[in-house]
Specification:
Blueprint: H1 6-28, H2 33-62, H3 67-88, H4 102-130, H5 132-159, H6 164-186, H7 194-220, H8 224-246
Helix pairs in contact: 1-5, 1-6, 2-5, 2-7, 2-8, 3-7, 4-5, 4-6, 4-7, 5-6, 5-8
């Protein structure tokens, strides 16, 4: 079992709080959330290219794993998450001619977000095993993304006519999931080839979430300049953090 660092415990709690706040925001605030989607998209894409991928390639080189192998893992991860989403139909739109699927798709869609949140938590723990700087950057991006996960969980349940009590239960499950993901990595020593491979998998996940979940939301509404500014802010912050932490 890995020693529990106070900062890791604090970040795990932060993911829990961010998810709950996102869910609460989805129930009360609606107009300005799209700008946060743009910001989160910028952070996820930036942390993938500026930290996770370089860290994965460096660790892979130390362990004798080919760069092409790692890049294939990234592509495979991107495809796998796309396939997973299609299987569970996370963002399936239901027309008026398909009312019988409404009640079923809410829990199925929210359940897939719970799985994503668990993997987000595992990404934090895996990144901290690589380096503290990588862990902090991944945690920053995950906390931002978990806020949107909370929003999505509530939105999907409400859209599919789920009761408030059941919606709250799924929101709580989504909030606990990243904490469990972090906890899992405390019991696993991600050594040798597993750590760089996992980081590469998370690169594919983050790129997919940023490109397919968050960016499309920025095109649907809102002022384009503000959307660009919000996304740019996420990129600039990650770029600045990677520069400072690498110094």
């Amino acid at each position: 079992m890995q020693p529990v660092q106070p900062i890791v415990l604090g970040l795990a709690i932060a993911t829990f709080a961010a998810t709950l706040l996102g869910g609460a925001a989805a129930l009360r605030l609606r107009k300005d959330l799209r700008y946060f989607f743009a910001f989160a998209a910028g952070t996820l894409v930036a942390v993938s290219f500026l930290d996770l991928l370089p860290e994965s390639l460096d660790l892979a080189a130390d362990r004798g794993l080919a760069m092409r192998t790692m890049l294939l893992i990234v592509v495979g991860s991107f495809f796998a998450y796309s396939l997973l989403e299609r299987i569970f139909a996370t963002h399936h739109e239901h027309g008026e001619d398909q009312p019988e699927h409404g009640h079923l798709m809410g829990p199925v869609a929210a359940g897939s977000l719970v799985l994503h949140s668990f993997l987000d938590g595992a990404a934090i723990g895996a990144a901290f095993q690589a380096s503290e700087a990588a862990g902090l950057l991944v945690a920053f991006a995950v906390v931002a993304h978990d806020f949107t996960d909370g929003i999505n969980t509530v939105t999907l349940m409400v859209k599919n006519q789920q009761k408030r009590r059941r919606t709250i239960k799924f929101l709580l499950a989504d909030a606990v999931a990243p904490v469990l993901g972090v906890g899992l990595t405390l019991f696993l020593d991600l050594d040798f080839w597993l750590l760089p491979v996992l980081l590469a998998v998370f690169v594919g996940e983050f790129l997919y979430l940023g490109a397919s979940h968050l960016l499309p939301e920025t095109y649907r509404s809102g002022k384009p300049r503000r959307m660009v500014a919000a996304m740019a802010a996420g990129i600039v912050i990650i770029a600045a953090l990677t520069t400072v932490l690498a110094a």
